């Protein structure tokens, strides 16, 4: 399997809030040297507690936040380097993102056709080709398991699961190779989560996609991911390359997360504390 994305030594800090001095220089290190790779066709889980830096890493990997240090290469192109026009266009649509908050990420005043159409227009700009947008919207809706006539609906006329499917269709519209999902299923109820994960799994095979799957929920990681990294306070503290071995993780932090959902680790006594 070839490497699609490679991040090396990613470091990000933010100015600390609530500083007594107006121009205080204290900084909070949010990412402290992250290394990871995503291979073609795989789903890499990124798990960690709230505040561990997952979304910040997601923003860095999707080109939204330039890190203070480190490099990211996608298909051999440096994400924050100097680009030719072609590289810029390629990097704009090679990776797309689906966020947790589907209600605010879909404009309530736009119909589904316009929400997805916006991404199709972006693809047209990037490739210089024109698309039959109406037909593509219908195809994309079908791909995410929704009827084509949903194109005329507004977001408030859809359930949470249906709206998240629309957001997935919008992410697919740019024909990406990688989709970054940041807590994309976390707001859905358990059975809808399973349905959306099954959809993601089917799309992965059908469209040769790879996923970066960010979550704080280990249950979903074990359901959909091939590999997982555990993040704690801006560092990767454990990597699992074979999900059948997940119960053999070492770090106390990862064991604590695992124990919380599966009751695994208690038998290892104090190491799991
Ligand atoms: N733009 C910003 N300015 C200042 N601090 C920030 C900024 N973005 C994130 N942080 C801080 O960085 C830390 C990591 O935040 P991040 O959103 O990456 O965590 P997370 O792992 O995604 O958490 P959650 O599971 O709650 O989504 C937090 O302490 C947060 O307050
Ligand atoms: Mg987050």
Summarize the structure.
The chain is α/β, with parallel strands linked by helices and 273 residues long. Helix content is 36%, strand content 25%. It has helices at 54-61, 85-94, 102-105, 112-127, 133-143, 160-173, 190-207, 218-224, 252-262; strands at 3-15, 27-39, 43-48, 69-74, 77-78, 95-99, 178-182, 210-215, 227-232, 235-240.
Give your account of this protein's structure.
The protein has one domain (3-105, 177-272): 3-Layer(aba) Sandwich (Rossmann fold). The protein is built from nine helices and ten strands. The protein has helices spanning 54-61, 85-94, 102-105, 112-127, 133-143, 160-173, 190-207, 218-224, 252-262; strands at 3-15, 27-39, 43-48, 69-74, 77-78, 95-99, 178-182, 210-215, 227-232, 235-240. The strands form two sheets. A six-stranded mixed sheet has the order 6-7-8-3-9-10, sandwiched between helices. The two termini are 37 Å apart. Residues 265-273 have low confidence and may be disordered. Residues 14, 30, 48, 50-56, 216 line the site of adenosine-5'-triphosphate.
